[in-house]
Amino acid sequence: MNALEIENVSKRFGDFCAVRNLSFRIPRGTIYGLLGPNGAGKTTTIRMVMNILIPDDGGIKVLDRRMDEAMKAHVGYLPEDRGLYPKMKVGEMMLFLAEIKGMTKVKAKPAIDRWLERLDLGEWRGKKVEALSKGMQQKIQFIVTVLHEQDLIILDEPFAGLDPLNVKLIKDIMLEFKDKGKTIIFSTHRMEQVEMICDNICLLNKARMVLEGSLQEIKKRYGKNTVVLDYEGDGGFVKDLPEVVKVDDYGRSMEIKLRDKADPQSLLRSLVGRVRVHRFEIQEPSLNAIFIDNVGVDHEKDTSGH
To answer: In terms of Cα–Cα distance, which of 30, 29, 28 is closest to 1?
Structure first.
């Protein structure tokens, strides 16, 4: 059984097509990454799943039912545009939001207390929301989203504004939900988070699906033609070596894509004596490299939204 089925869905705003002929299925009990640069159609897709926007074409089924207003109660949803009440006290606001979604006060209060303690926010229970940092507010929004522990949880940029410790905390909670049989869909443009936890991905670019399927299978498809190099010195010459197709240079490390049938040992011989090599590892390409390959390096120029 699938948690979500999207069949030939399109959405237009006037002459602009935000999502074009999109189809995919998400098995229950998995973590699914909806990826893409700004303006690719990620948030539009999520809003159609949540029945906030109506598709112009195609159909959507959530937990084997057509999505409607009644079905929303069965889905946890963290929107891109956060909706907290700044003048309310944290505990009161969380209880209010829990009751709106049908949770009784008797059940909600201990659950809220438990989650606040787990995310290191217990002492802020009686403070006004506006007193919280952006990262704290993000954690509050996350708690409100998962409090009911619905079978399907949809998170639009769940790690936004969080430091590395809190990213790990949220990631661990997502994996715990998966172990309980929950399905999690989350959108992001930060590839390192996807590689940590996703079973399957869908990569969107300019309203279309570019890649979809098992993350493991997608990486295998690209083969072990990538060298990860940690080095000291001037590595500017590497991109011009005959074995090399492309280099992503991060200053002290590189991800080097090799030509078909190129010998990595030949590359290593070219490096020795010109830079100091600390690490030379042949591996599958990172998801970040696959992302750039499919989307193009100019995606960061588009800041029009998701």
So the answer is: 28
Give the separation between CA 10 and CA 23, rounded to whole angstroms.
10
Contact 56, 12 (CB under 8 A): yes
Handedness of CA 58, 63, 69, 73 (dihedral sign): negative
Q: How far apart are CA 35 and CA 205, in angstroms?
A: 9
Return the beta strands (E) in the chain as ranges: 2-13, 16-27, 31-35, 57-62, 65-66, 75-78, 152-156, 183-188, 200-205, 208-214, 226-232, 244-249, 253-258, 276-283
**Non-local CB neighbours of 226 within 8 Å, separated by 6+ positions:** 255, 256, 257, 258, 282, 283, 284, 285, 286, 289
Q: Tell whether the model's pLDDT for residue 188 goes beyond 60.
A: yes
Q: Which residues pair with 254 in a beta bridge?
A: 229, 249
Pairing of strands 226-232, 208-214: unpaired
Could you tell me the pLDDT band of residue 100, with boundaries at 50, 70 and 90?
confident
256 DSSP β-pair partners: 227, 247
One-letter amino acid for residue 145 of the chain: T
Task: Extract the tokens encoding 295.
Answer: 């989307």
Q: Which residues pair with 271 in a beta bridge?
A: none
> How far is residue 167's CA from residue 169's CA, in Å, rounded to a whole number?
5
SS3 96: helix
The residue assigned the tokens 């229950």 is 28
Sequential DSSP letters for 121-187: -GGGTTSBGGGS-HHHHHHHHHHHHHTT--SEEEEESTTTT--HHHHHHHHHHHHHHHHTT-EEEEE
pLDDT digits over 209-241, tens only?
999 999 989 988 887 889 999 999 999 999 999
Tokens linked to 277: 């090599």
